[in-house]
TrEMBL record:
Histidine kinase domain sequence ranges: 20-225
Protein name, as recorded: histidine kinase
């Protein structure tokens, strides 16, 4: 019986995800088709069109990556010993244009923390999603602080704090549900992807938020040998 329920749960999840992919990808594809039709008609090379087409294609790529991670959390996950500090720094560089354009200050405070065992590509995705959400949540001149901290029991905490719009209490528990988004162009998958990846790393994500004041998200990861041990037991 249990098995049956689990199977039907899985099936509806797959159906929901498939419908989601179709829906999400249709918009950027329609836009790309429109640009190309215009290009075909005008026969004129336009730098701006090209840029827009590229942007929409990147959007499609991003959406597919998110869905792949959800459907198969271990895809592209080569686990190795990792230092978190350079990973966070790389992700900060990735969002630099976005934060500069909005005049958002992003600070990084770090303690000397142990190495972890994980997938660089996946963890980058987690920090990228969280940092993007933070940038999207703050007003112009907003402030974001990323902290790398030692956490009890040989764990490490990566904390991302913003002074943005915050999340109403009743909505916090809905976070991580697929397709829950308050943004016009949001997929509502970013946080779900983060939860999945961190779970895959034997870690934990917690969210504290106050409406109108800001949000603090803690990603807790075990240090290297603990994750390795936990994964080997499976
Ligand atoms: P998306 O960013 O595509 O909307 P996410 O799963 O990343 O999807 O986030 C889901 C929703 O959670 C967002 O639409 C937003 O309402 C809320 N949210 C996430 N992070 C923050 C944050 N730092 N501050 C305020 N709201 C947030
Ligand atoms: Mg997001």
């Amino acid at each position: 019986m249990d098995d049956l329920i689990r199977k039907s749960d899985k099936l509806s999840m797959v159906a929901q995800l498939a419908a989601g992919v179709a829906h999400e990808i249709r918009n950027p594809l329609t836009a790309i088709k429109g640009f190309l039709q215009l290009f075909q008609r005008e026969r004129e090379f336009n730098e701006q069109f090209l840029e827009l087409v590229m942007e929409e294609l990147e959007r499609v790529e991003g959406i597919i990556y998110e869905y792949l991670t959800l459907a198969k959390p271990n895809h592209e996950s080569t686990f190795q010993t990792l230092k978190l500090q350079p990973i966070v720094q790389k992700v900060m560089t990735l969002v630099e244009t976005q934060s500069i354009m909005k005049n958002v200050q992003v600070d990084f405070e770090f303690e000397d923390v142990p190495t972890i065992y994980g997938s660089e590509k996946q963890l980058k995705q987690v920090f990228l999603n969280l940092l993007r959400n933070a940038i999207e949540a703050v007003e112009e001149n907003g402030e974001i602080t990323i902290r790398l901290l030692n956490h009890p029991e040989n764990q490490i905490c990566i904390q991302i704090e913003d002074n943005g719009c915050g999340i109403p209490k009743e909505r916090i528990e809905r976070l991580g549900e697929p397709f829950y988004s308050t943004k016009e162009k949001g997929t509502g998958l970013g946080l779900m992807v983060c939860y999945k990846i961190i779970e895959h790393h034997e870690g934990l994500v917690t969210i504290h938020s106050e409406l109108g004041r800001g949000t603090k998200i803690d990603v807790i990861l075990p240090e290297y040998s603990r994750t390795k041990q936990l994964l080997q037991q499976k």
